[in-house]
């Protein structure tokens, strides 16, 4: 049994068939009716990940000998996968259709609001229309299809069930039965065998066959008349343990190169604009999202042959070096001497293996390690490209930026003091002699400005208990918050925002507990700001409760944490070298 898109198909005939079929589809009126830009043939199907590693990522190379392919790096290739002839034939037999019949599909009235719309009235073979315009093997139908089926059900219990599914009361059960299981049109028709729908009724509610967009991972400059794709095969288990696979990725992976199957494709502009050779780049992406960046690097390499090019920093992430380090040889070759990712040219390639060590390392951690180089490129106008999940990836990258921007900036002397206690003497002296006095002066100035604007704003922290009770309160609270901060820094979650949230909630809780005792401040600079700006303070009380007790608690907290959680030998060696 042959698909309509075999290698022996005449190109012009195939284009005409596609245009006719997709223009007749009622759900495609006014859009997606274009004939394909070209037909490509697969010349390479290579698995990039190790077998049985939990991920199946493939590299595909498509080629044409008949056309000059016109696209840019960062563009998107839309593919129309062919449906398996076996379920197509099963659908035709289930609906009692004549495979050899020719049809035309016309709406009763065309009111699309789109000018110059034309619907093909050239008869097309029914089988070809089903293959190219009706998605019967992958898409899940909506509630309307169940309502239509109920009109043609001849068995009472099937009719009642279909009516229930199409009613508002049956919405939740329909979701469990249909959407969660991703039941296809063919499966639904096989579940309700008494339903005999005329073909003219099937055309409207059956989902149309859609193209699948894939990021191009090649450059036309380095591979003319070729398109490379990096595709992750999608598969999952439904709630009742039925295995489901992604239609397009499974179809591409299963193509036999010897059969020479023609692949229908359209080229579209991607969301990543192609950069000029003089524009420095910062590329950030884990996993298969590196696909468009393969094209960026390949094109920059071609451009470097004819003149100077700007540097590229690339931050890449995967789980394991052995299992899913995609395009390892490609990246390493360009990161070597004189490569476009080499340090000699101002660039760099930094890879994070999240599962190769006990503590997970992600792309954002590598960015933090190289933040000075990133800033240097940004200062000369570099463009930053982030590819990946539209929700998680940008948030993680932003967290890395925010974490680095805020690093070193503090309004609490205790925050500055804790990491320098067991550090180098130079850092300790700089903190004690320069940074802490600067914080105190800033606090006093800030409070005075506040009081000038809002004279009745308040008096700041007050000691409402005896000296020893107050010192114990501030010391205990400081010890707790220092322990929490150090614990989060070493073994906490990777998310910068979660760390900030935990720290903030902890400080707020301690502040509430100590508000009626000492104000629960845990910040000597803030207390001094209020005391000296108001001109109302008792030196002994101030120094003993708000300075000496928190500083002693900070030293005790750092010492205790170091004792209970000693650094690894590698970290100790690096610390000694830094001294």
UniProtKB/TrEMBL annotation:
It is found in: Membrane. InterPro entries: Aquaporin-like, CysJ-like_FAD-binding, FAD-bd_FR_type, Flavoprot_Pyr_Nucl_cyt_Rdtase, FNR_nucleotide-bd, MIP, NADPH_Cyt_P450_Rdtase_alpha, Riboflavin_synthase-like_b-brl. Gene3D superfamilies: NADPH-cytochrome p450 Reductase, Chain A, domain 3 (1.20.990.10), Nucleotide-binding domain of ferredoxin-NADP reductase (FNR) module (3.40.50.80), Translation factors (2.40.30.10). It is a multi-pass membrane protein. Pfam families: FAD_binding_1, MIP. One of its GO terms (molecular function) is oxidoreductase activity. Residues 35-275 form the FAD-binding FR-type domain. GO terms for cellular component: cytosol; membrane. Coiled coil: none annotated. Its cofactor is FAD. Transmembrane segments: none annotated. PROSITE patterns: FAD_FR. Its main location: membrane. Keywords: Cytoplasm, FAD, Flavoprotein, FMN, Membrane, NADP, Oxidoreductase, Transmembrane, Transmembrane helix. It comes from the Eukaryota. PANTHER family: NADPH-DEPENDENT DIFLAVIN OXIDOREDUCTASE 1, NITRIC OXIDE SYNTHASE-RELATED. This is FAD-binding FR-type domain-containing protein. It comes from Kingdonia uniflora.
């Amino acid at each position: 049994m042959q698909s309509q898109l075999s290698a022996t198909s005449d190109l012009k005939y195939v284009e005409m068939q596609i245009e006719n079929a997709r223009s007749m589809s009622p759900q495609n009126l006014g859009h997606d009716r274009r004939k394909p830009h070209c037909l490509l043939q697969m010349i390479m199907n290579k698995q990039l990940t190790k077998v049985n590693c939990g991920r199946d990522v493939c590299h595909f190379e498509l080629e044409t000998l008949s056309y000059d392919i016109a696209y840019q790096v960062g563009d998107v290739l839309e593919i129309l996968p062919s449906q398996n002839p076996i379920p197509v034939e099963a659908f035709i037999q289930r609906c009692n259709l004549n495979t050899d019949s020719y049809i035309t599909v016309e709406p009763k009235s065309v009111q699309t609001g789109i000018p110059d719309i034309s619907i093909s009235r050239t008869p097309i073979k029914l089988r070809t229309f089903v293959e190219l315009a009706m998605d019967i093997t992958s898409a899940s139908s909506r509630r309307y299809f169940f309502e239509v089926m109920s009109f043609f059900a001849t068995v009472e219990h099937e009719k009642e069930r279909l009516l229930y599914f199409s009613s508002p009361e049956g919405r939740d059960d329909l979701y469990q039965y249909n959407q969660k299981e991703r039941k296809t049109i063919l499966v639904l028709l096989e579940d309700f065998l008494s339903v005999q729908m005329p073909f003219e009724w099937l055309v409207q509610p059956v989902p149309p066959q859609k193209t699948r967009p894939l990021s191009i991972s090649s450059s036309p400059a380095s591979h003319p008349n070729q398109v490379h794709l990096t595709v992750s095969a999608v598969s999952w288990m439904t709630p009742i343990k039925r295995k489901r696979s992604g239609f397009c990725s499974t179809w591409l992976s299963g193509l036999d190169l010897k059969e020479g199957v023609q692949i229908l494709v359209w080229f579209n502009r991607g969301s990543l604009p192609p950069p000029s050779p003089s524009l420095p780049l910062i590329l950030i992406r884990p996993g298969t999202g590196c696909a468009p960046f393969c094209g960026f690097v390949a094109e920059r390499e071609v451009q470097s042959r004819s003149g100077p090019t700007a540097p590229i920093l690339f931050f890449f992430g995967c789980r394991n070096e052995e299992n899913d380090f995609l395009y390892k040889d490609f990246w390493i070759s360009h990161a070597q001497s004189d490569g476009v990712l080499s340090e000699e040219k101002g660039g760099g390639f930094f890879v994070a293996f999240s599962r190769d060590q006990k503590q997970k390392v992600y792309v954002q951690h590598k960015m933090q390690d190289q933040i000075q180089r990133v800033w240097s490129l940004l200062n000369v106008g570099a463009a930053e490209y982030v590819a990946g999940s539209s929700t998680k990836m940008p948030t993680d990258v932003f967290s890395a930026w925010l974490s680095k921007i805020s690093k070193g900036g503090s309004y609490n002397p205790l925050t500055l003091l804790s990491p320098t206690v067991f550090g180098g003497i130079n850092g300790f002296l700089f903190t004690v002699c320069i940074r802490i006095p600067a914080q105190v002066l800033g606090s006093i100035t800030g409070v005075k400005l506040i009081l000038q604007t809002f004279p009745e704003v308040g008096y700041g922290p007050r000691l409402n208990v005896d000296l020893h009770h107050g010192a114990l309160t501030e010391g205990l609270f400081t010890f707790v918050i220092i322990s929490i901060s150090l614990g989060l820094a070493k073994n906490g979650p990777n998310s910068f925002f979660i760390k900030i949230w935990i720290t903030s909630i902890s400080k707020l809780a301690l502040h509430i507990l100590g508000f009626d005792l000492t104000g629960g401040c845990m910040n000597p600079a803030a207390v001094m700001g209020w005391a000296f700006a108001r001109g109302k303070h008792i030196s002994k009380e101030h120094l003993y409760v708000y300075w000496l007790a928190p500083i002693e608690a900070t030293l005790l907290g750092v010492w205790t944490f170091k004792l209970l959680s000693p650094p690894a030998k590698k970290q100790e060696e690096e610390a000694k070298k830094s001294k």
